[in-house]
């Protein structure tokens, strides 16, 4: 099987690279299946995950040449439910923090995948493109869930209806992503951020992800209950004891992720 998703691991960090650079890493069924498998593997072997792209693009969304013959009357529902939903859930339900290191254009479902990650770091020359309406579709792969929550309804509507590229700096300014980084500093920056997550208090990072994501659907009462439950776990961890001891001893904490 050709490797459409590369898996590299070192020091608690799993780097997953979308690997069809000739077509801007456009997504195939093989790629979606390999992505789901890679997330499952990383969950067992790593403490943080980076998703990035090979070549000059991050991901151009669905491979439009891989949809079969005549498209008129085609039912895209099963494709989304059976192949895209598992990828989105692999990202959002992973207990590990996931960074999207957006090395170039992220279009269509490629933008949806990037924006579903917990932290998005983009190189300054990257753009985010809600390409869907250009081909007569709506944002999918979680796009209509994520976009309005990240940038508000007005901007989400404009991005989806006009399908214009949003530059990384503008994406940062409107809260669509965490940070845009000068091209020459991009690799070093995402690697440093990823190492921070891979060597830090893993239970707390996992708890932060669980609580923040749950807050999108919870009322305050439910959220307070969830915070208490998660904080009880974190409070009992070796990392909490180490963090407090390191503070009192005026030294750098050495976390074990448990
Ligand atoms: O159907 C369903 O419900 C399933 C889910 C669908 C969700 C979606 O993702 S729908 C949206 C699909 N994506 C797009 O519509 C984006 C199409 N691509 C573009 O608009 C542009 O290629 C980019 C803005 C991404 C990049 O532009 P540029 O000028 O930097 O590069 P390029 O020259 O257009 O692309 C380079 C090559 O990649 C080119 O191939 P060639 O001419 O060198 O042989 C191009 O055809 C290929 N490519 C780019 N995107 C796709 C693609 N091939 C297949 N599928 C693509 N999505």
From TrEMBL:
Keyword Nucleus: no
Database matches in InterPro entries: ClpP/crotonase-like_dom_sf, Enoyl-CoA_hyd/isom_CS, Enoyl-CoA_hydra/iso, Enoyl-CoA_hydra_C
Keyword annotations from UniProtKB, A to Z: Isomerase
Pfam families listed in its UniProt record: ECH_1
PROSITE patterns assigned: ENOYL_COA_HYDRATASE
Molecular function (Gene Ontology), one example: isomerase activity
Ranges in a coiled coil: none
Family, similarity comment: Belongs to the enoyl-CoA hydratase/isomerase family.
Full protein name: 2-(1,2-epoxy-1,2-dihydrophenyl)acetyl-CoA isomerase
Taxonomic lineage from the root: Bacteria, Pseudomonadati, Pseudomonadota, Alphaproteobacteria, Rhodobacterales
């Amino acid at each position: 099987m050709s490797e459409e998703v590369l898996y590299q691991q070192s020091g608690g960090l799993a780097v997953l690279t979308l690997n069809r650079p000739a077509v801007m890493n456009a997504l195939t069924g093989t790629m979606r299946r390999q992505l789901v498998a890679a997330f499952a593997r990383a969950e067992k072997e790593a403490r943080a995950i980076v998703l990035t792209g090979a070549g000059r693009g991050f991901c151009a969304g669905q491979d439009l040449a891989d949809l079969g013959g005549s498209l008129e009357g085609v039912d895209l529902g099963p494709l989304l439910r059976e192949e895209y939903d598992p990828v989105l859930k692999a990202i959002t339900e992973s207990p590990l923090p996931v960074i999207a290191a957006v090395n170039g254009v992220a279009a269509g479902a490629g933008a949806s995948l990037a924006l579903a990650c917990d932290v998005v770091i983009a190189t300054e020359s990257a753009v985010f493109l809600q390409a869907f309406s250009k081909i007569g579709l709506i944002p999918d792969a979680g796009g209509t869930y994520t976009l309005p929550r990240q940038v508000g309804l007005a901007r989400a509507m404009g991005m989806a209806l006009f399908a214009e590229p949003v530059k990384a700096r503008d994406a940062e300014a409107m809260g669509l992503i965490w940070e845009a980084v000068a091209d020459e500093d991009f690799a070093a920056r995402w690697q440093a951020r990823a190492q921070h997550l891979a060597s830090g208090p893993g239970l707390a990072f996992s708890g932060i992800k669980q609580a923040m994501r749950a807050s999108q659907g919870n009322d305050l009462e439910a959220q307070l209950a969830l915070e208490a439950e998660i904080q009880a776990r974190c409070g009992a961890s070796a990392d909490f004891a180490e963090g407090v001891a390191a503070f009192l001893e005026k030294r750098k904490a050495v976390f074990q992720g448990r």
